[in-house]
Design brief:
Layout: E1 2-5, H1 10-23, E2 28-32, E3 46-48, H2 54-63, E4 68-71, H3 77-82, H4 84-105, E5 109-111, E6 114-115, H5 139-158, E7 162-163, E8 165-167, E9 169-171, H6 184-194, E10 197-200, E11 208-212, H7 213-225, E12 237-238, E13 242-244, H8 246-256, E14 261-264, H9 269-274, H10 283-289, H11 297-313
Parallel strand pairs: 1-2, 1-4, 2-3, 4-5, 5-7, 6-8, 8-12, 9-11, 10-14
Antiparallel strand pairs: 11-13
Bound molecules: (3R)-3-hydroxy-L-norvaline (VAH).
């Protein structure tokens, strides 16, 4: 049985639905602190779980014969800067609870997401390498970097098969984003449809690595389905698809909504974005387990608008 922790989040909802399609609804248990997300209702088992409660998690793992754990619960970059100690505590304790129970119960596989946020202002910005200077300047980035070190440690010392991807900014329409710096690239679609205008909290030339959620979900499943021997990176794989700036995505949206206008009012999130890479070198993921993105800016924009128009109409 698979347990998804943080199943009601931006990634969790879609990952749960994809895993249920692959393994059968009854075999994927969704859990979150929040109440069950609309899209998950009626599609499989749901339990309320506070991942910070190690005993509760341990009982759940035993009672439901859990053999794989996907840990998606975390405080993201922007929210984390508002409450650094809480973000550190939640992001680290949740991971250590899962890793230690995985070791004790001999869980087959664990998935835990890292992020491009592990890189800082001193890392190379173009085609940021898998191995390079890593000096994160946000608590979220610090917790993700520390988490990567713990994942590698639990794999090397205890043989826990934990796997991880450094996600770029993820764009999706099925579930709300969770307080990230890249969330402008989701908000812009909603505002373009509803208001025909958007005030962006990042400056027009802020290039960031981005990915459409279908690619992120497929990458996660392809990584988890790969033979153990292919996984050479046990901290977290760089993962890339595209890079764009607010100016570029606005121009792409204008092709579909000509009257759309954008203006810029950078806030505290600009400093976070300035410290991040502009594009990723994901050679290791491509060589080790065959990673290849399918969505680029044009295709993603068309798909986002098509799907959001349907939901807005409802
Ligand atoms: C954030 N969406 O903005 C997340 C992600 C690379 C960005 O980690 O914090």
């Amino acid at each position: 049985k698979i347990l998804v922790i943080g199943a009601c989040g931006q990634i969790g909802v879609e990952l749960t639905l994809a895993l249920r399609k692959m393994y059968g609804d009854a075999n994927v248990i969704a859990s979150d602190l929040r109440e069950e997300h609309e899209l998950l209702k009626g599609s499989g088992p749901y339990v309320s779980l506070d991942v910070m409660n190690k005993e509760m998690l341990h009982v759940l793992v035993i009672r439901h014969n859990i053999t794989q754990i996907y840990l998606l619960a975390a405080i993201l970059s922007a929210t984390g800067e508002k409450n650094p100690l809480l973000a550190w505590h939640i992001n680290m304790a949740s991971l250590l609870n899962v890793l230690d129970i995985a070791k004790e119960e001999g869980i087959d596989k664990v998935y835990w997401p890292s992020s491009i946020a592990v890189f800082g202002p001193d890392s190379p910005k173009e085609s940021t390498p898998q191995h390079t200077i890593i000096e994160p300047t946000t608590i979220y980035g610090i917790s993700k970097f520390a988490g990567e070190r713990w994942c590698e440690y639990y794999h090397n010392r205890y043989g826990v098969d934990v796997r991880s991807l450094r996600y770029p900014g993820l764009i999706s329409y099925k579930s709300a984003p969770g307080g990230g710096t890249t969330d402008y690239a989701i908000e812009i679609f909603h505002e373009a449809l509803e208001e025909k205008k958007y005030t962006c909290f990042l400056s027009e030339g802020t290039y960031l690595p981005m990915m459409y959620m279908p690619d992120a979900i497929r990458a996660t499943i392809e990584l988890m389905e790969s033979d153990k021997g292919k996984i050479k990176v046990r901290s977290s794989y760089n993962l890339g698809a595209m890079s764009f700036s607010p100016k570029e995505i606005a121009a792409e949206i204008k092709k579909h909504i000509p009257e759309f206008t954008i203006d810029y009012a950078p806030d505290y999130r600009q400093a976070i974005a300035n410290g991040w890479p502009q594009s990723m070198d994901d050679e290791n993921a491509r060589n080790d387990w065959g990673w290849k993105p399918e969505y680029y800016l044009e295709k993603m924009t068309a798909d986002m608008l098509k799907n959001l128009k349907e939901t807005v109409k409802k």
